[in-house]
Design goal:
Blueprint lengths: L16 E4 L5 H12 L1 H13 L4 E5 L5 E9 L5 H6 L1 H10 L9 E10 L8 H16 L3 E8 L6 H6 L3 E2 L5 E3 L2 E9 L5 H12 L7 H4 L10 H13 L4 H4 L8 H7 L4 H17 L5 H15 L5 H7 L4 H23 L9
Parallel strand pairs: 4-5
Antiparallel strand pairs: 1-2, 2-3, 3-4, 5-8, 6-8, 7-8
Length: about 350
């Protein structure tokens, strides 16, 4: 797209490759940070390179020498001491408290990203680093929020607005007298696939619908894990009642809106019913879990008049039936929660 083309050098990245961090990179990367951001930032870089080395990607050329790097901080893995030490992490964490992370979710702060010679200016290295960020958006299980700090946020404003990244002044921070501006994106409100669709519309110069309108006329609701579990139990109970399902909080969840889009409540209730049915049916793939599926099926999807009659249909003592039903509800809830937070690595056992 012409509006963002000046911010990238796509054709000149062929000789640069992304590699894992090696312990002997530490000195070179610390010197790189000190060169561009000063001694205080370099000390913080050493802290994070040592604390979360698995979150560091290094750009190299043919010689193997570091040409740039990207250091991510997984915010949910930070301690109070980490946050007290680093103003960037503390500011991002404070923003997250407005919509706290849920169980299984992660938030990424791209704490340091720079090229050896050109820092954060437009360059082949900078372009490669942005590609690494995009990859992170798309493949990180349970990603809820991304933060990107910049030394010159105004220069990058058009590119980040194009990418649906919000300017988060409240996440700005200062280190060694230098002010850094931060952009961010809440992936719970606009998941990666919807975000990719938005970028495709912009690339084709189509006037894009806002992420909020594509997700439904009502805003996405972000439920805690406990509230989500309660909503699943209620939805199973009301499985055959479209009116009741239409008032369930799950019809405004990422789980449902990703399927139903901008549909009226009755259609979203139908989508929720399909999701519940398919998730319950997936239990049949496991011999251990199939008995739990049968309890769920005869209680909610093809319900007997009473739970006592459901136990009779299954030829089970009532206490055993209740145990199977409870286990089935828990398994269905676990699988739906994994989808809600974007972690699709559910187990089948």
């Amino acid at each position: 797209n012409p509006s963002v083309r000046p911010f990238f050098l796509w054709q000149e990245t062929g000789t640069i490759f992304t590699d894992a961090f090696r312990p002997d990179d530490l000195e070179a990367l610390a010197e790189m940070v000190e060169r561009h951001e000063g001694q205080a930032s370099a000390a913080l870089a050493v802290h994070w390179l040592s604390r979360q080395p698995h979150n560091v990607s290094v750009l190299r050329g043919a010689s193997g020498t570091p040409l740039g790097f990207l250091a991510r901080v997984s915010l949910e893995a930070t301690s109070a001491a980490d946050r007290q030490l680093d103003p960037a992490v503390d500011a991002a964490w404070s923003v997250l408290q407005q919509k706290p992370l849920r169980s299984g979710e992660t938030a990424t702060l791209f704490r340091f990203w720079m090229a050896l010679e050109s820092y954060q200016s437009v360059s082949p290295e900078q372009t490669r680093l942005v590609l690494n960020m995009i990859q992170d958006y798309l493949i990180t299980p349970g990603l809820a929020f991304s933060f990107v700090p910049l030394a010159d946020p105004e220069f990058w404003r058009m590119a980040f607005e194009y990418a649906d990244m919000e300017r988060l002044v409240q996440a700005d921070f200062t280190v060694d007298g230098r002010r850094y501006g931060v952009y961010g994106h809440d992936w719970r409100e606009t998941p990666p696939l919807a975000w990719f669709e938005l970028l495709a519309e912009r690339e084709m110069n189509i006037t894009p619908s806002s992420p909020r309108s594509r997700a439904g006329s009502e805003s996405i609701i972000v439920l805690s894990e406990a509230d989500f579990a309660t909503a699943v139990r209620d939805a199973l109970r009301d499985f055959t009642d479209t009116t009741a399902l239409s008032t369930n909080p799950l019809i405004r969840s990422r789980l449902v809106l990703a399927v139903s889009g901008d549909a009226p409540p009755a259609a979203r209730a139908a989508a929720l019913r399909t999701i519940l049915r398919e998730t319950a049916e997936s239990l049949q793939a496991s011999p251990r879990l199939s008995k739990f599926y049968r309890a769920v099926y005869h209680t909610y999807m093809q319900p007997a008049v009473t739970q006592e009659q459901a136990a009779e249909v299954l030829d089970l003592p009532f206490s055993t039936y209740r145990r199977h039903l409870r286990a089935g509800i828990e398994e269905v809830t676990m699988r739906l929660w994994a989808r809600e937070i974007g972690n699709l690595e559910t187990r089948v056992a």
